[in-house]
C-alpha cells in the first residue's frame, strides 16, 4: 500500500540521518538500582543504568513500594474512571494537599503525566483568558510548546534565560493585555538553570502571570525538595508551578500548584483533565510517600551532588568534553548523530553501560550528546567503570578531547 511505503521511507530517512530511536529492552531489578537486566536476541545481560530520570532512586525506595502495596490491597488496581466520574480516590485528595504544601500554594491538581499537565494547563489558561499572549522561553519543552500551540493564543518567543529580551518583548504589548510568561527552572538537556527572580521582576513589572516548569528540579533542590523556586525563595512570586511525579519522586504523574481559583479553573475547563482516567490509587500513594520523605530528608540530595561532582572530575581527568552547568545533569558532548549512537551502542554491548544517545530534534544538530544522570546510589566503582569505558571508546574512535 502507498501508505506503508510512505511510513517506511520516512523511517529510512531517520536511519540514514542517525536519528532513528531504538528502545533498549531492560528490566529494573527491585532493590538493585542502578542495575538492570537487558533483554535481547543474544539473551540476557546485566547493565548499569546511567540515563534514568529516577534521579534519586525513589522508584526503588522500600517505603514507597510498601505504600503502593498497601494502597493496592486497600483499593485495587485502577481508579475506576475519570476524576469526575467515580475516579477521585482519597489518595488523590491527600496527594494534592501534599503538593500544595510542598510549593506553598493554596491548591494543586493532578494529571496523568508531566507532559499532560503542561499541555492541559497551558492550553487551557492561554485559550480561555481572552486575548492572552504567551511569552515562551526559546528552550521550552515540547509539552509546553504543544500546550501553547493547542491554545491558539499568540506566542512570542524570548531568548533563552534572557530577562532583558523578555522585557523588550513585553514592552511591545499593551499594558492591559493579559500575558503569561512560560519557562523552566532546570533545562533537561543542557542542565542550565533559569534566573527565576529576574524573570519574575520583569513579568511583575508588566502585569504578566508566570508559569514555571520545575519537572527536573522537584525533589532535587530546596530544603524540602520544592525545586529551584523553593531554593531561591521565590515560589510565592510564581502564578503556577508545574511538576512531575515521574522523575525525582520515582513514580508517575504530573501536577500544577497555584491558587485555589486557578486550579479549580483548570479542573473545570481542561479537556486533558476532565476526559482522562485518574491515576491509580497505588501510584498516588507511592508518590505521596516519596514527597513526604524528601520533605524531611536531605541525605539523597547531598549524596547525589557528591556523585555528580565525582563524575565531572573523572570526565575532566579523562579529557571527555561535557557541558559545565550548575545542575545534576551531565551532558557529554559528541556533536555527531552517527557517532553518538555508535558510542551508546558500544557502551551497552561491550561495557554494560546504558546511556541513551540524544540527537535532533531533542537537541540542535551538531550538539548531539550522551546525557548522564548520576544518582546517589551509583558507587565509586560504577563511576570508575563509566569513565574508563568512555575513555576507551574516545581513544578508539579518535574523538576530540577537552583541554
Task: Describe what this molecule looks like in 3D.
This protein is an alpha/beta fold and 403 residues long. The protein has helices at residues 2-17, 62-75, 83-87, 90-103, 114-128, 142-151, 163-171, 196-205, 228-231, 260-269, 271-274, 281-296, 299-318, 337-351, 380-397, and strands at residues 26-28, 35-40, 43-49, 107-111, 133-137, 154-158, 179-184, 209-213, 240-244, 254-258, 330-333, 353-354, 357-358, 369-372. The strands form three sheets. Strands 4-10-9-8-7-5-6 form a seven-stranded mixed β-sheet, with helices on both faces. A four-stranded mixed β-sheet has the order 1-2-3-12. The radius of gyration is 22 Å and the shape is globular. The mean pLDDT is 96.
Structural class: alpha/beta
Mean pLDDT: 96
- What is the count of DSSP helices, taking H or I runs of 4+ residues? 15
Could you list the spans in which at least 5 consecutive residues all have pLDDT below 50? none
Helix content: 40-55%
Report the β-strand fraction as a percent range.
Answer: 15-25%
Element pattern in H and E: HEEEHHHEHEHEHEHEHEEHHHHEHEEEH
Q: How far apart are the termini?
A: 54 Å
